Every structure is written in C-alpha cells, then in structure tokens.
C-alpha cells in the first residue's frame, strides 16, 4: 500500500511538477483559512483531527468516535477494496485516510491539499505508518 500526500503549491514554490499551477489569490485565501483551522486544532491538542461533523449512532460516543463513524460509513458505501487507488482531494488533516488505511486494504492513496499546515500534519504520520492489516500477528 502506498500513502502519498501532496501539497498543491503556493505561488512561492512547490514541486517542479506543479510550479506552473500556483494558487490564485482566492484559493490562497481559502488555504490560509484551513491553515488557521489546523493551527487551532493543534493548540487544543485534540487527539484526532478529523474535519467533519460526525455520525451519531447513540448518545454515549465521543465527538471523535462520531467523526470516525461517518468516515467508516463513507468507506463502506464507496466499497474500497484491495486493488483500488484512492484519491482524496482536500484531505484536511488526513485522519480519515489513516483510518481508511488502518481498517481497509487498498492499493494506493493519493492526497492533495492547498493548506500547508494540513499537509505538514498529514505527512508526519505516514512515514512510519503500517496499516493494521499489513502487520504481522504477535
């Protein structure tokens, strides 16, 4: 399985493959808003940094559990399987992609995002990430 997180570059840089497609002013403004959101999540030390409203199945689950449940329901509806290539455009913090990798088998995941702080957060974990279905039994 491959996890690839790619920033969409700002006007000031980015990878050579993307330099000719720098962000326009309006998109850069939105990217700044998402960076502000990500910085806020980092300040409150929220354990998972999902960026969705969640799906409640009862009254006792935490907000993070509700957020993960919404992702699981989307994964089930998408019927993601072993040979699939997943593309996540605007992946936020990437939490849903890590959850997907822990719980489902797929061939590759490519994530694209315009917010530098979200890209930085999302790229910290995959470097050392091993999905649960790929781990050796104890």
Residue stretches low in confidence (pLDDT < 50, at least 5 long) are 10-20
Q: Note the total helix count.
A: 4
The count of strands amounts to 3
N-end to C-end Cα span: 21 Å
Summing up helix and strand content along with how strands pair, one would put the structural category as alpha/beta
Describe the model.
The chain has 138 residues and is an alpha/beta fold. It has a domain at 2-11 and 23-46 and 81-129. Helix content is 38%, strand content 12%. It has a three-stranded parallel sheet, covered by helices on one side. Helix 3 (95-103) links the parallel strand 2 and strand 3 (108-113). Mean pLDDT is 76; it is low at 10-20.
Write a concise keyword list for the protein shown above.
single chain; about 10% strand
Summarize the structure.
The chain is an alpha/beta fold and 138 residues long. It is built from four helices and three strands.
Question: Helices and strands in order, then pairings?
Answer:
Layout: E1 2-7, H1 25-43, H2 63-78, E2 85-89, H3 95-103, E3 108-113, H4 116-124
């Amino acid at each position: 399985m491959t996890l690839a997180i790619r920033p969409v570059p700002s006007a000031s840089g980015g990878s050579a493959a993307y330099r000719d497609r720098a962000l326009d002013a309006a998109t850069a403004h939105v990217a700044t808003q998402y960076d502000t959101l990500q910085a806020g999540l980092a300040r409150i030390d929220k354990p998972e940094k999902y960026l969705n409203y969640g799906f409640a199945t009862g009254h006792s689950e935490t907000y993070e559990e509700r957020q993960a449940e919404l992702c699981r329901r989307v994964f089930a509806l998408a019927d993601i399987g072993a040979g699939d290539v997943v593309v996540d455009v605007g992946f936020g913090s990437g939490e849903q992609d890590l959850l997907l990798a822990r719980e489902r088998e797929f061939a590759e995941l490519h994530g694209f995002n315009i917010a530098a702080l979200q890209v930085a957060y999302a790229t910290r974990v995959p470097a050392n990430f091993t999905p649960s279905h790929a781990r050796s039994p104890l």
